[in-house]
Amino acid sequence: MSSGVQPSQECLEKFQELKTGKKLSYVIYGLSDDKRSIIVLKTSEDKDFDKFIAELPEKECRWAVYDFEFELPGGEGTRNKLTFVMWSPDDANVRNKMVFASSKDALRRRLEGIHIEIQATEYSEITKEAILDKALRR
Amino acid sequence: MVYNGDEVSALVVDFGSATTRAGYAGEDCPRVVTPSFYGYTTEEAPASTSSAANGNGNGEGHTNGEDVSMEPAPEGAESSVKKGTGRRFYVGDDGVGVWRPGMEVDNFMLDGVVNDAEPAAALLHHILRDRLCVDPTEHPLMLTEPAWNTPKARQALTEMVFEGEKMPALYFGSSGVLSAFAAGKPTALVLDVGYANSSAVPVVDGYALRAGTMRQPLGSQLLVSQLHHHFTNPSRDRTFPLSLLPRQLIAKRVPTAENGVQPKPLLRDDRAPHTTASWKLWAQNTVVEGWKEASTEVVNYKGFDFQTANDLPKVLYEFPDGYTQQFSDERYRFSEALFDPKNYFDQSFEPPATLRATPNSDHSHSLKDLVSLSQLVHDSIMSCDVDVRAALLQNIVVVGNTSLTRGLTERLDVELAALMPSQKIKIHSPTIPFERKYASWVGGSVLASLGTFHQLWVTKDEYEEHGMSIVHQRCK
């Protein structure tokens, strides 16, 4: 079941840019004001994880793609894995949560090459450690 | 069906085992919450002028002139004579809750599914016309359905909506998915503890996984029947059975001086001979339900025992007949069946026959093989693909009216941790009570109000052209 809300062309273009250009560090997605489509709210080249987390508001849902860079254990070098984040804080209202949850698949399906997926309701669920844990498990 | 551009003013109806919820899409809360139980009288073909003396048995007491004049039972909007089985239905708030001579009680839901279309249609009609006061031909309707809904029930509902009410469009929303979405989760394990059933439905990326869906007839209906037996028999600290008389059969209550003393209320003797057994049982269960809602808790640590339960807080409760008592272990003992059905579900007497409808299968436990809520969650998750288990365990969404029993989510947490010690488990349940009670209605309300959702509606024209296949195709 889905809401019928679709991602705009820009959503996919920015994702491609992040994936192939190796310049962008993350893309934050949200809903258009008329709630009919998914739009890009922000892109950034800043690799600081905390800055990325700060883009996730306390009382509103977001989707995001973050280019997660990490060290392989034993000094085998660094790797990058694209991480998709579904952010739906408990304090967001039902309407907001409902639209984001029911539209997620329409966006996620169009983004090829995602390795890690995180569904978080509080900041403690989206830490570097939690993502690293998933990255290494694969 | 088009108002203000693409603003579709849709309606949402959520048929539940105890209550049916209905209202306008886009609103926070259902406007109508009304019993799924209904009353009916059977009009026998020849004019029923003589009153048969079988009113208090399970036969049909007749509504003769005398009874009617002495009992001005509300009529009109709530009653409707239906062709077919010749039953006259009394639905809605003034349906089953109003005493009528010879009125029997039944419920159109069975095992969480709409089982008897005729009274369900009468209730839908009443809701649309009398409660929401709308012209059904102008509003699309979203109906919720359980993950185990049957094609037969789906078809009956579809006919009810398109052919009966001539509504312009319909969509079936899956209850579990709607509840997960309303909690902000495309992926979640939804534990719904309701009236007739408790069910665990794994939802992954917005789709309910049939493979992992588990249900069993362990909900408040079973607890109420156990309590009914307990109250209508003498117990350790009570030498007499409780009457559990509802206010409808009491003329005057004589306050009892002390706690634990048998009350002597003044009864409505005029009503007694015309009260059916099914109405009486329903009314008594409603009295028990009232006690349960006010008094029951689940101990929030592992394992109940009488010793410690006696030390837990007591509550004073007064029944409609005036009986008053400080209740202690009863507050915890019966709800313990939710987590330990092997020891706390007493099978020595007959549980409600309707609960036997749930079979023993890969996706359900029958009354004989109930498992704890934690085991149900565990089994459901374990029958899903190994890739999604971790995500489900960290996103357990608990909904349903019975889940509001104090201590339930805390206890579930304790039990799950004991069952799966090495796993990260996280229970999320909506903090606002009505969002938990009416989770699937609330989810349906938001979804059906979205402008983009209109492409998913099955329209009356499409149904007339393609029949049920278009419904099955679109409502997944």
Automatic annotation (TrEMBL), chain A:
Gene3D superfamilies on file: Severin
Domain ADF-H: 2-136
Annotated SUPFAM superfamilies: Actin depolymerizing proteins
Cellular component terms (Gene Ontology): actin cytoskeleton; nuclear matrix
CDD domains on file: ADF_cofilin_like
Xref: SMART domains: ADF
Pfam families attached to this UniProt entry: Cofilin_ADF (PF00241)
Any single GO BP term: actin filament depolymerization
Family, similarity comment: Belongs to the actin-binding proteins ADF family.
Entry protein name: Cofilin
Organism: Kwoniella shandongensis
From TrEMBL, chain B:
Pfam families per the UniProt record, alphabetical: Actin
InterPro entries per UniProt: Actin, Actin_CS, ATPase_NBD
Region ranges (Disordered): 44-84
Start-end of Low complexity biased regions: 44-55
Domain of life: Eukaryota
SUPFAM superfamilies tied to this protein: Actin-like ATPase domain
Sequence similarity: Belongs to the actin family.
UniProt-listed PANTHER family: ACTIN
Name under which the protein is recorded: Brg1-associated factor b
